[in-house]
Here is the input.
Amino acid sequence: MELKRVVVTGLGALTPIGNTLSEYWEGLISGKSGAAPIQQFDASLFKTQFACEVKNFNVEDFMDRKEARKMDQFSQYAMVSASEAMADSGLMESNPDLDFIGVIWGSGIGGLKTFQDESQNFFEGDGTPRFNPFFIPKMISDIAAGHISIKYGLRGPNYVTVSACASATNAIIDSFNLIRLGKANAIVTGGSEAAVNEMGMGGFNALKALSTRNESPETASRPFDVDRDGFVLGEGAGALILEEYEHAMKRGAKIYAEVVGGGMSGDAYHMTAPHPEGIGARNVMLRALEDAEIDATAIDYVNVHGTSTPLGDVAEVKAIQQVFGEHAYKLNISSTKSMTGHLLGAAGAIEAIACIMAVKNDMVPPTINHFNDDPDLDDKLNLTFHTAQKRVVNYAISNTFGFGGHNTSVIVKKFVG
Here is the structure.
């Protein structure tokens, strides 16, 4: 069976460093930090009092208040980014067969704030079970895909992938596979997360996963730095319109890039820590390369998972050196989480977008906040510190890994007709 080609025809982003695709990309290449003291609740008693929040966001600018109240924030973010991507793609203007347009979304947690609020209201009450009738529909992770499909009448494959921080990349890979198998003509994919709340911050603090650099939030996410002390929690969404090549060409669509490979693997090692030798990370990149039918030397840029944790950064670099060998020294490698923080289940979406824009614009976003070298990392690697770097980017790979040992990699290629 001959597999179909899959291209990217629309993008949308709602992030801590920009509320649209153009703002997000400008934030990336300018090295902007999205970290700041938390505004959504009083975090003064928390170990970590800062995060990478979405800023200047008013949901009523995008939908009426009645509809917004039926959605958790993670679904609101999904709707906004998907709307931008759909408008960008022009897909609906071509009168497509809606039976073959789907939605595959990713979210690691879903409606955490809704769960928190409803639980708090119940336990602070008199014990009478009074719950919002939208409690369950607002909370469940799959509802984001449902809302998007309902808005546009999309009747193709529809579901949400949940694999912790790998969720959005899993959604992208599933979408890629279904389109190239001929099961859909186009799919709205990506991910969203909204865990900057008391339960989210408290839970990750209890895990000792977050940076506690309260005196300097903007420099707290420092991947590869010897003094890194944990990730910075982020929130937001990213959306991609993946489309079968011939379908896109027939309607004269703008094409950003081509998706050519995806890999998935498991660490089978630890609940929250990566395998110290990066075995799962190594395997997932090898599988993505095999799927794309390219040699490792074809890759120009690796957008790493790079969360700014002591164990994770070292393990991923070891994996890169195992996969790429001497070519590792010719790569640009960067962690855009140094700017956006960690968007959990949405991370793979905005980082895939970073790769797509790098391929389109021949520009590699930087890793900011590097102050002191880590002796456990090879200082000859180009980790793209401080500033964006101009170079030809024909192929880029995006890595995302999740608690539970879930590993995903997706490869995008510069589009050539």
Remarks:
- Residues 90 and 189 are 16 Å apart (CA to CA).
- The mean pLDDT is 97.
